[in-house]
Design brief:
Helix content: 40-55%
Structural class: mainly alpha
Shape: globular
Strand content: 5-15%
Number of strands: 4
Distance between the termini: 29 Å
Low-confidence stretches: 236-254
Strand order of the largest sheet: 1-2
Radius of gyration: 26 Å
Order of helices and strands: HHHHHHEEHHHHHEHEHHHH
Length: 371
């Protein structure tokens, strides 16, 4: 999904460049469009009605218009692909929750989740703000501290989307007609967070503007606070009875933390360790990818009255059914691997023995759970 989002961003940049060429060409020849909103159907008809004395100018205009149409069609095509694939994405619940926030539409939400993935890898919202380059830079020497513009470090794609969305908070706090349909599909907790964000950020935009701050500075400050609400929202839509990760003692682990693990040789299939891991497991569901689609595993889970949520392999003659909605929460497992690999000793496999490596993983898991 991240590659598709980046391809769409490239297409949008290409469209902006093509439109700029047309606008510059018309301005260079003194042809002015006297309405406020360009690139509507009326504007396109106006462009087609323009005629030039020299045939070279006419051909150049038509070629640029054709290039702009091709870029627009490409952009619409990629946007349609994203809209079609989002419902099947494992992060679809988080994408739907993010759209409850003002200034965050489908493309912005997908871009945020595709680039950030698990927001919980940032311990606090401030660390997410710093990662996005939205915090002020600082020049310190001795007792002197001077703050400058934002650092612009980290992921620029998400930062641009947040700043674009922050402009919407210059308007009064009220949900729009389209946003109402999105809010109706969200939980009460998500709706409360979305309204709290809208009320706070619109008031802050108004307050900063009244203090004489530049509009760009105000918008950047609003985008910085938007990142904090985006840090909270992806965790809100996860009900306790759908996370599907259970501890062996019957306690439910809603944060997707580590319960048990086995170290396996790199050339061995992971199925070899599953029998020990599921022995005595008290759970309602077991989520795994299609690599774990084995008849003996399904039979063992049925004997323990555990529902397997495992997609079937493509070569199965009679594929088994599975709950696709519950399977969407398997991303918590992949997110946890990402948290573990933040520790360089685990990512680089620095330990010389299996015993020390397992101890390092246990220590890192304890630290993650205590966050």
């Amino acid at each position: 999904m991240r590659d598709l989002v980046r391809a769409r961003e490239s297409a949008a940049e290409d469209q902006r460049h093509k439109r700029q060429l047309v606008s510059a060409f018309m301005l260079r020849h003194g042809r002015l469009y006297h309405r406020t909103k360009p690139w509507t159907m009326r504007y396109r008809r106006w462009l087609q009605s323009q005629s030039f004395d020299h045939p070279a100018h006419q051909i150049a205009l038509q070629e640029m218009l054709q290039a702009e149409r091709n870029a627009t069609e490409r952009l619409d095509r990629l946007t349609g692909h994203i809209e079609a694939l989002v419902p099947e994405w494992d992060l679809a619940p988080a994408v739907n929750a993010l759209q409850a926030l003002r200034g965050v539409a489908l493309i912005s939400a997908v871009t945020f989740m595709a680039e950030i993935r698990d927001v919980r890898r940032f311990e606090t919202p401030v660390k997410l703000m710093a990662y996005l380059g939205l915090v002020p830079s600082e020049y310190s020497t001795g007792k002197t501290t001077k703050r400058g513009g934002i650092t612009r470090a980290g992921n620029s794609r998400v930062r641009h989307k947040l700043i674009e969305g922050a402009w919407t908070y210059r308007l009064p706090a009220r949900p729009g007609v389209k946003k109402l349909y999105i809010l109706q599909k969200q939980s009460a907790e998500v709706q409360d967070i979305a309204w709290k964000a809208q009320a706070r950020l619109t008031a802050r935009y108004r307050k900063l503007s009244q203090r004489g701050k530049k509009s760009t500075v105000v918008t950047t400050a609003i985008a910085r606070e938007m990142a904090a609400f985006l840090w909270v929202l992806p965790a809100a839509p996860c009900p306790l009875d759908r996370c599907g990760l259970h501890a062996p003692n019957g306690g439910r682990e809603v944060n997707g933390n580590l319960v048990d693990f086995r170290l396996m040789p790199g050339q061995a299939h992971d199925l070899r360790a599953v029998a020990d891991l599921i022995e005595g497991l008290c759970a309602d569901h077991l989520l795994a990818d299609r690599a774990f689609d084995a008849d003996w595993l399904r039979s063992a889970l049925d004997e323990q009255e555990i529902t397997p949520v495992i997609p079937p392999k493509s070569n199965r003659r009679f594929p088994a059914s599975f709950d696709k909605e519950t399977y969407k929460w398997r991303h918590l497992i992949e997110n946890y691997f990402g948290k573990l690999k933040e520790y360089r000793g685990i990512a680089m496999r620095s330990c010389k023995t299996d015993q020390s490596f397992a101890a390092f993983i246990s220590l890192a898991a304890t630290i993650i759970q205590l966050r």
